[in-house]
């Protein structure tokens, strides 16, 4: 289920993608000032996605102000910046993406949402933030829900938060 993407060797990566991935905010500003755009590489990984993956909220802000597409999905799994930021527990970045209009209930090609990723990894603050923004307890294509994966991983704080939010305790997997 892990969606982390290694960017350093991917075809089609631009200088802006690398600078965003590494969190070089001043370089990102210079590149944008020179006309660089938030162009994804061949796998659909954009500079905004890369910065979100690493939790570089300052770079995320710069890219969003320059018009980066908060909905740009990777071509492999259909993952979006919000999902990868949630998976990695980057609360500040998640907040910025939500404020920019990210779809809190976006499902990738496997049906996974940001809430499922945050629950799976035990990021309780991100779970609270997503629920506050209207995230729903949506199971993926295999019937795995945020409550299920948080329970499986033993994240009792996340389980408690999800239960308080009304998560379905009877949601069962659909595949063996």
Automatic annotation (TrEMBL):
Record's keyword terms, sorted: ANK repeat, Repeat
InterPro entries, sorted: Ankyrin_rpt (IPR002110), Ankyrin_rpt-contain_sf (IPR036770)
Pfam family, one: Ank_2
Keyword Repeat attached: yes
Gene3D superfamilies per the UniProt record, alphabetical: Ankyrin repeat-containing domain
ANK repeats: 11-36, 43-75, 77-109, 110-135, 142-174
PANTHER family for the chain: ANKYRIN REPEAT CONTAINING (PTHR24173), ANKYRIN REPEAT DOMAIN-CONTAINING PROTEIN 16 (PTHR24173:SF74)
Protein name, per record: Ankyrin repeat domain-containing protein 29
Source organism: Geodia barretti (Barrett's horny sponge)
């Amino acid at each position: 289920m892990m969606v982390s993407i290694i960017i350093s060797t991917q075809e089609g990566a631009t200088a802006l993608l690398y600078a965003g991935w590494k969190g070089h905010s001043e370089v990102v500003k210079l590149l944008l000032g020179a006309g660089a755009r938030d162009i994804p590489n061949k796998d659909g990984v954009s500079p905004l996605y890369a910065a979100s993956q690493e939790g570089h909220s300052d770079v995320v802000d710069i890219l969003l102000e320059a018009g980066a597409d908060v909905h740009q999905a990777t071509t492999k799994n259909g993952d979006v910046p919000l999902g990868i930021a949630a998976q990695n527990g980057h609360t500040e970045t998640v907040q910025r993406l939500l404020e920019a209009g990210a779809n809190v209930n976006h499902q990738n090609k496997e049906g996974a949402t940001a809430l499922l990723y945050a629950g799976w990894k035990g990021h309780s603050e991100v779970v609270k933030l997503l629920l506050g923004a209207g995230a729903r307890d949506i199971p993926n294509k295999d019937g795995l829900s945020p409550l299920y994966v948080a329970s499986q991983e033993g994240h009792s704080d996340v389980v408690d938060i999800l239960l308080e939010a009304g998560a379905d305790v009877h949601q069962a997997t659909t595949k063996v």
